Amino acid sequence: MNYMKNLRYTIILLVLGFFLFPALSSAEEVETSIKAEFLTYDAAQQVYHLRGDVRIRRLDALLQAEEAEYREKTGEARASGNVRYEDRWVVIEAGNLEINMETKRGIVYNARLFFKKDNYHIRAEEIERLDEKNYVIRKATFTTCDAPLPAWCFSSKKTDVRIGDRLKAKNVVFRIKGLPVLYSPLLWAPIYTERKTGLLLPEPGFRSDKGFCFRQPLFLALADNRDATLYFDLYSRRGIGEGLEYRYIERKAGAGQWWLYHLRDRTLAKDFYEFKGKHSLFRKDRVSGFLNIHYINDRDFYQEYSQQVQVRTRRFLESTAEVFYPFKKGRAYLLGRAWQDLKESSEDVMQKAPEAGISLYPSKKGPLYLSLKTSYSNFYSKNLLRVQRLDIYPRIYHSIGDSIQLSQIIGLRETLYNISNSDNFPDSISREAFDYSLRLHTRLMKRYTAFTHILEPEIGYRFIPPVEDNIPLLDSTELYRRVSAVDFGFRNYLYGRNGQIASVRLTGLYDILKADNPFGLIRLEAAMFHPLNLKLDTSYNPNSGDFEQINYSASLKAGRVGFSFGQRYSKDDEILFYRSSISLPVTSRLALNSALWYDAKRGGLEDLKLSANYSAQCWGINISFNRRPDDYSILFLVELKGLGTIRFSGI
């Protein structure tokens, strides 16, 4: 027995880097370092014997053991005594290891595996490798908890694993602090793959107006760039729903996401359908486009089934489609736009399909800039009103001055209408007009020790002579009407060392044509970014003395406690909403949250949410209460970190 210290040489044996990682078993010659206190070679048996602080390093992998043995003739290798393997992905500790380097079969006894990336801990009495991808694990536990007694774990008597495919376990027990809680005869899950066809976690629950609720998603991996999810919904008191979500990314055709849902409501004796989707294709200097569709067959669908107050209070659904071609000096386009009114009948809503147009960007011609917008649009409504419109709008720009800028714009506009099936308008209308705008603008800046103040005052004048106004209101083009008005205002900006602190914009209007009430709305827009985050947009009518709209939102974080409050008010639309929320961290792991949406004009409390969230090292739980005008629900979210979220909704 020869004493060897810091012995280093290359040897084929040490593809023993570890049988769980076949990438180390390369046919390439890779340098392997061996250290042991004692090394002997039995020439008759062709066996290497290593003993005492054995260290075998190959690439980024390190194998340590008290003893190791390798048989050259059969390719069998054994390691024992505090066996430890580590690379950049995993740490493996075991009592004994056996492997055949030729057949790649092997066994690890009393093993503990730790996957660094996702913090997975696996303990097993025996792990047998059948080939490069197939393993059998016996009497194993799995968790992402670091504690010796994990907060949760799964245990099974036998687990079959196919790397890159799936994990299938029999007689699975879910344990909390070592105590059995749930049992399943079979557990199936994808392993070492990002996308795999299979059932997703279900969502059981109970809602006060719909009874027991259950949603079961099924994920379908159709291809590397395409997948889909099927949904089955059960409402014990109301009916059954089915949904399909399809997603794709095509290299030359673009990307998209589509959703189709159907629900049969027995109580209302209605079939609800929802269809929405989007597709986009953007290519530089080539034909591009996008499509957004959103449609429901019954306006009651969101009121009955949506848990989001923003969806329940929505007035319109918009669907748009556009194909455009950009070129050096402008763009050509073809678009369509449709609206669905969720509050009233959509029969009088004018839909636009299609509109074709060309826009030429401002181009310099001597001291002037020239631009052009022209479009042909087709409008229709369900009450059979039909309108075709041709709009041609060239404009000329001129600007002089540096510190004080004087800008002028003159535009010529021709708009032709062809109207069918209308008792209110003639069959043909022609509108010719011009407009002239003048604007004076300057910028003043003052630097102080702690901040910089920028002031931008401006005053402008716009004139449009009398034009034909007996025309149908289709979109913003019809707002081009007689004007002779002066507008004025200023912008204020405050900048500190760390960026913008606040901004304020105040604007007003003086209408020369309205001698009795010449002053228009005075609008104030303000924003503050720290220490208080504030946004304000309000309009005041000096003629009536009323505020036409008041919209604001404010949020403040004091330490770890967060507050927010907001309002949306519109006099014309008769809207007055209040919103507020509070986030209160009780401890480093426990946080309480609340959110309220109050409709002061109609039904009072529109939405109330209270929630508590607890997050530990390897698990978390969220409990939330949601109150709507006609029902309530309680939502439980249990997260086992590394596995996903189990959702119990609508109780």
Instruction: Find the CATH topology of the domain at 12-190.
Output: lipopolysaccharide transport protein A fold
Calculate the mean pLDDT score and round it: 86
Strand residue percentage: over 45%
- The H-level CATH homologous superfamily of the domain at 12-190, spelled out, is Lipopolysaccharide (LPS) transport protein A like domain
Euclidean distance between termini CA atoms: 73 Å
Quaternary organization: single chain
Estimated helix fraction: under 10%
The low-confidence parts are 1-28
Features:
lipopolysaccharide transport protein A fold, mainly beta, 651 residues, 29-stranded antiparallel beta sheet, 41 strands, 2 helices, twelve-stranded antiparallel beta sheet
Please, could you describe this protein's structure?
The protein is mostly beta strands and 651 residues long. Among the domains are: 12-190, Lipopolysaccharide (LPS) transport protein A like domain (lipopolysaccharide transport protein A fold), CATH 2.60.450.10; 194-349, no CATH class; 588-651. 2% of the residues lie in helices and 66% in strands. The protein has a 29-stranded antiparallel sheet that branches. Strands 1, 2, 3, 4, 5, 6, 7, 8, 9, 10, 11 and 12 form a 12-stranded antiparallel sheet that branches. A hairpin with a 3-residue loop joins strand 38 (604-615) and strand 39. The chain starts with 31 loop residues before the first strand and ends with a strand. Residues 1-28 have low confidence and may be disordered.
